[in-house]
């Protein structure tokens, strides 16, 4: 969502590229300087060290907080391994009590993360996220409603709802890595050469904003127009086509993340050590190709502990051009030798299983009130059409979007559970 007006009466959103700063004098709005105004140049190994040092300095601030029970997600991928490097170098790892990898049983990444934990002697646990047989549909309804009502207005089913404060704990997360690398594979090899190609790319962001495909035409077109206007403005300022994607994240996502925290399900408060304005400024001054090479991630790992660039990833390998920044150190040039015979692609997410098991009740609940504010931006006919299209239930983004609508419905009506009315909510 862009702009100031929110769907809640009397509540406004902070505009893109703005942030809220709290000090003794109260709350003040601040803004980020424009990245595209700075001079472009060739980056050196010293630049990489400076960007890494800025991130390490920020992480040491996290380490100084009066918190002693950090948790960390580890997937074995590029972003999570960069966060591991940050934690190891900054002293944050001394406060990490739990290092976990989530996924379905037999997930190949379990082998990679277990090897990382073994080499660095870390307390690591592989967590099977398969929920079938472990929780009833009513447990999921209770879980969803409790988290939706814990903070009015936070209605994202996967990343926007806080748990009860008394059970909250900070979790180090690799989210935010897209500030420095093309985390979406389809964009890694993208070569933009025209305004038309640029418009097509930014309009595809709408798929992420509306995974169910139920936004009203006016909402959809407004979002697309906003993205086109942002992209065209960058181009008018002389920004290379290939860099518009990164500027979008640096100037419109970084201020919202601010490298700090985002509430998450089950009381997890996520910290984003990779989100750092100074590091983003340094990396942006280089070429778009550096980001496609995962340059900053390489420099972070090399500076924190060279073993991190030597241990293979599940699928990725380092770009050969990074050898010029390696200082002669060996680097992983082939994928991790997975021993699992039959890797699974299942997400094992409780959200997808819940959506598939409670499909009819979820839709019926969202559609039950014709006066719902949801339908100010959601096309009711399209939502009803999706009711009969079960084929997308297994898509995590779609399941999350559906549960977000359910959460919104609960919040706006201060509603009780659709099932098991009056049952006390477990904390």
Note the main sheet: 6 strands, mixed
CATH structural class of the largest domain: Alpha Beta
Q: Give the proportion of residues in helices.
A: 40-55%
In order across it, which strands form the biggest sheet? 5-4-3-6-8-7
The low-confidence runs, each spanning 5 or more residues with pLDDT under 50, are: 150-166, 259-265, 417-427
What separation lies between the terminal Cα atoms?
A: 31 Å
Number of domains: 3
Strand content: 5-15%
Total number of strands? 8
Give the structure's gist in a few sentences.
Helix content is 42%, strand content 9%.
Structure description:
With 427 residues, the chain is α/β, with parallel strands linked by helices. The chain folds into 3 domains: 1-31, no CATH class; 44-325, 3-Layer(aba) Sandwich (Rossmann fold), CATH 3.40.50; 350-413, no CATH class. The chain is 42% helix and 9% strand. The chain has a 6-stranded mixed sheet. α1 (45-64) crosses α13 (295-304) and α15 (350-357) packs across α18 (396-413). The longest helix is centred in the N-terminal third of the chain and has 20 residues, at 45-64. The chain is globular, with a radius of gyration of 22 Å. It starts with 17 loop residues before the first strand and ends in a 14-residue tail after the last helix.
């Amino acid at each position: 969502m862009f702009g100031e007006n929110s769907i809640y009466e009397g509540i406004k959103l902070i505009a893109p590229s703005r942030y809220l700063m709290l000090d003794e004098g109260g709350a003040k709005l601040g803004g980020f300087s424009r990245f595209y105004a700075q001079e472009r140049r060739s980056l050196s190994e010293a630049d990489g060290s400076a960007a890494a040092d800025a991130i390490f300095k920020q992480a040491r601030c996290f380490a100084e907080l009066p918190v002693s029970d950090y948790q960390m997600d580890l997937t074995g991928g590029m972003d999570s391994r960069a966060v591991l490097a940050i934690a190891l170098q900054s002293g944050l790892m001394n406060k990490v009590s739990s290092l976990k990898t989530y996924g379905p049983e037999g997930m190949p990444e379990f082998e990679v993360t277990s090897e990382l934990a073994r080499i660095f002697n870390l307390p690591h646990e592989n967590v099977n996220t398969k929920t079938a047989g472990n929780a009833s549909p009513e447990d999921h309804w209770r879980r969803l409603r409790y988290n939706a009502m814990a903070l009015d207005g936070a209605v994202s089913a996967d990343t926007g709802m806080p748990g009860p404060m008394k059970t909250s704990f900070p979790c180090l997360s690799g989210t935010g890595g897209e500030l420095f690398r093309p985390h979406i594979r389809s964009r890694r090899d993208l070569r933009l050469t025209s305004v038309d190609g640029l418009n097509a790319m930014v309009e595809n962001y709408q798929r992420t904003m509306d995974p169910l495909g139920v936004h009203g035409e006016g909402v959809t077109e407004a979002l697309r127009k906003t993205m086109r206007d942002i992209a065209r403005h960058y181009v008018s300022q002389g920004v290379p086509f290939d860099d518009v994607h990164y500027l979008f994240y640096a100037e419109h996502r970084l201020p919202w993340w601010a490298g700090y925290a985002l509430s998450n399900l089950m009381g997890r408060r996520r910290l984003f050590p990779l989100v750092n304005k100074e590091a983003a400024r340094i990396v942006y001054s280089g070429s778009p190709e550096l980001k496609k090479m995962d340059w900053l991630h390489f420099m972070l790992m090399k500076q924190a502990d060279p073993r991190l660039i030597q241990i293979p990833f599940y699928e990725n390998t380092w770009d050969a051009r990074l050898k010029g920044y390696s200082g002669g150190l060996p680097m992983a040039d082939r994928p991790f030798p997975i021993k699992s015979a039959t890797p699974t692609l299942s997400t094992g997410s409780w959200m997808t299983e819940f959506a598939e098991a409670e499909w009819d009740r979820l839709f019926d609940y969202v559609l039950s009130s014709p006066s719902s504010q949801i339908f100010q931006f959601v096309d009711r006919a399209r939502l009803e059409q999706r009711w009969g299209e079960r084929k997308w239930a297994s898509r995590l983004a779609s399941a999350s979007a559906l549960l977000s609508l359910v959460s919104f419905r609960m919040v706006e009506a201060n509603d009780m559970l659709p099932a098991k009315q009056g049952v006390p909510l477990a904390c």
